[in-house]
Amino acid sequence: MWLSDKAGAFYKMGNFPAAVNAYSEAIGISPFLPKLYINRASCYILLSLFEDAVTDCTRALDLLTPPVDANRLSRVRTLAKRGSALCQLGYLDKALEDYQLASKLSPEDEGLKSDIQTLLSQTSGNTTATAAVPDVAVAT
């Protein structure tokens, strides 16, 4: 899809607002492709538009059904992205739930385990979260 490729090029150039616009246009044409929402969520995170990122990740997860092994990695990445955005918004308990779900799907992922430990220490101490933001690179 041409718009998705254009959005990816904008992303690689660091022009995240243009990438958001291109992904939005692509979504208007193909609203049932989870990758478009996932990639736009990555841009939103980099633009500190965390509520928009949560919305796009939630939509992508809705589209990634049924949950099968073929979409497991996309679900893991999307849950981690949404968890990251939720952390930035201060919703630590919800973020922890997403990271734990992602870790169940990908138990070998040490980064997720580390983020969970960070969140657990922050939620028990009631400190404001700025947990590590997972890699927000666009999906190919």
Order of helix and strand elements from N to C terminus: HHHHHHH
Report the sheet-strand fraction. Answer: under 5%
Q: Name the helicity range.
A: over 70%
Spatial separation of the terminal alpha carbons: 12 Å
Number of strands: 0
What is the CA-atom radius of gyration, in angstroms? Answer: 15 Å
Q: Which blocks of ≥5 consecutive residues have pLDDT under 50?
A: 127-132
Q: Report on the biggest sheet.
A: none
Overall residue-averaged pLDDT value: 91
**Subunit arrangement of the protein:** single chain
- What general outline do the C-alpha atoms trace? globular
Structural class of the helix and strand makeup?
mainly alpha
Tally the helices: what do you get?
Answer: 7
Describe it.
This protein is an all-alpha fold and 140 residues long. 72% of the residues lie in helices and 0% in strands. The chain has 7 helices and no strands. The longest helix has 18 residues. The protein is globular, with a radius of gyration of 15 Å. The protein starts with a helix and ends in a 15-residue tail after the last helix. About 4% of the residues have low confidence.
What's a quick, concise take on this entry?
The chain is mainly alpha-helical and 140 residues long.
Write a concise keyword list for the protein shown above.
140 residues; mainly alpha
Question: How is the secondary structure organized here?
Answer:
Elements: H1 2-13, H2 16-29, H3 34-46, H4 50-63, H5 72-89, H6 92-105, H7 110-125
